[in-house]
Amino acid sequence: MALVLLFICLGASAAVAVVYAVTKEPIELAEAAKVNDAIKQVVPACNNDVAKDTLSITDPTVSSKMDKVYVAKKDGQIVGYAIPVTTTKGFGGAFSLMVGFTPDGAVYNTAVINHQETPGLGAKITDPNQPFVKQWKGMNLVNGSVKIAVKKDGGDIDAITASTISSRAFCDAMQQAADIFNSINSESSASAAEAAPADSSAVAADSTAVVTTAVATTAAATTAAKGVKTVGNKK
To answer: Cα dist. 96→86, 146, 151 in Å?
Structure first.
């Protein structure tokens, strides 16, 4: 009996391994296609390969974790960012979202990559024509300018009717995306500050100091010259 059970387990394990090997690549390709499609939906028109043009940003909440950000460019200029996020607070479990921002921090669009929300209720998060989804477009989320929570929780967001849990989960995902975008914004500002020229008032002060030194030197030289002449006259 033990040998029979052993062979059955070995056979079952081998079958599972074969199925995994056969389906692994198609599943990965399907997931990659979903992500690429979501990226196209959430960024403005661009002419770079957004799926390959990425940034790695330190997660604002977990310093040991890195977040991937897709960068959309047109003729070398950044026109948008696509940020993938996942929330575990959905009614049906975790779901993933792609959030697109313009460089000034406005939401360009959102796209749900996968979800398990209830059809006809929480699943409305996937419908771009739903008021809940449409309200995010153009909303600027830079540095807390909008309170990302449903109005029932004291926020600025209108929830989906009869789907408060799904709405809260969507807000959680949007908050994550906003935090990541603000991290990008902060790093860009810091880099710009480091590269910026010296303060104009400091430059002006330095210039004044140089001119003053030059005038003083000239005056000293003139005085010295006059002194020599006087000595010569005396002689």
So the answer is: 4, 22, 23
Residues 208-235 have pLDDT tens digits of 444 444 444 444 444 444 444 434 444 3
Strand partners, 86: 96
**Neighbouring-strand partners of residue 78:** 73
Residue 188: how many other CB atoms lie within 10 Å: 12
> What six digits make up the tokens of 182?
């603000």
What is the C-alpha to C-alpha distance for residues 158 and 164, in angstroms, rounded to an integer? 10
Cα–Cα separations (whole angstroms), residue 194 to 57, 104, 197 = 19, 20, 8
Mean residue pLDDT of the chain comes to 83
CA distance 19 to 70: 33
How many other C-beta atoms lie within 10 A of the C-beta of residue 169? 25
pLDDT at 141: 93
Q: Given its phi and psi angles, is residue 140 left (phi above 0), alpha (psi -120 to 50 degrees) or beta?
A: beta
- Which residues lie closer than 8 Å to 1 by C-beta, 6 or more apart? none
The DSSP code for 159 is: P
Secondary structure letter of residue 67 according to DSSP: E
